[in-house]
Amino acid sequence: MFEAITDEEQRGQVGIGTLIVFIAMVLVAAIAAGVLINTAGFLQTQAEATGEESTAQVSDRLQVVSQSGNVTDNTTDNVRVIDELNLTVAQSPGAGNIDLNQTTVELVGTGGQESFELGGSESNINIFTGDPGDVVLTSSSDRADIGIDLSSTQYNTDQNGELRGGDSLTVTFTTPSGATTSAELRVPTTLTDEQDSVRL
């Protein structure tokens, strides 16, 4: 059934051929394994980065604690108006550090739409906790008062950016990670002379 090989030289050639085929198979398998390992590592790194960015977009949000407006007289038509917004903000639960200087604000209302970065000429930031001049919220106990001067924005240029009785305004904060928080502000129908500020 099997042919006996009596020639020793022929037996050696068969063994060398088998060894070459075996080494080639090992090399191909090693190269394929290396490619698979590199691809798996790249995919793992990319998945981790995507997961961290997605988590930041969901959790690194601002939370509006209180909202009010400064009431003053409009000298043009002698009515009471709101010329400045005051919003107290904090980190949302589970949020990381939030740099308020890199946070953008969007105002949307009956007077139009306006977007700008905090810390510019349209706004000022005062953090109650932490070092003076520090505009980064680092813990859930930090509070920052954000003042938005409506008269210095392009919003509602016909009324110098001011809000009047019955007006509404949506303020949207977007943190550097892309997480957004919106607050709906509604001005009372009547603003009296006794009011210096009013809750919105």
What would you say about this model in short?
With 200 residues, the chain is an alpha+beta fold.
Descriptive overview:
The termini are far apart. The model has no long low-confidence stretch (mean pLDDT 80). The strands form three sheets. The chain has a five-stranded antiparallel beta sheet with strand order 6-8-2-1-11, with no helix packed on it. Strands 5-4-9-10 form a four-stranded antiparallel beta sheet, with no helix packed on it. Helices cover 26% and strands 35% of the residues. It folds into two domains: 1-59; 61-199, Immunoglobulin-like, CATH 2.60.40. It has one helix spanning 8-59, and strands at residues 62-74, 79-91, 98-99, 104-109, 112-117, 123-127, 136-137, 144-149, 168-174, 180-186, 197-199. By secondary structure, the protein is an alpha+beta fold.
Task: Compile the SSE list and pairings.
Elements: H1 8-59, E1 62-74, E2 79-91, E3 98-99, E4 104-109, E5 112-117, E6 123-127, E7 136-137, E8 144-149, E9 168-174, E10 180-186, E11 197-199
Antiparallel strand pairs: 1-2, 1-11, 2-8, 3-7, 4-5, 4-9, 6-8, 9-10
Q: Could you name the key traits of this structure?
A:
single chain; 200 residues; alpha+beta; Immunoglobulin-like; 2 domains; 5-stranded antiparallel beta sheet; 1 helix; 11 strands; rod-shaped
* Text of the CATH class of the largest domain: Mainly Beta
The CATH topology of the largest domain, please? Immunoglobulin-like
Distance between the termini: 100 Å
Radius of gyration: 33 Å
| Number of structurally distinct domains | 2
CATH architecture of the largest domain: Sandwich
Overall 3D shape: rod-shaped
What is the N-to-C succession of helices and strands?
HEEEEEEEEEEE
Tally the helices: what do you get?
1
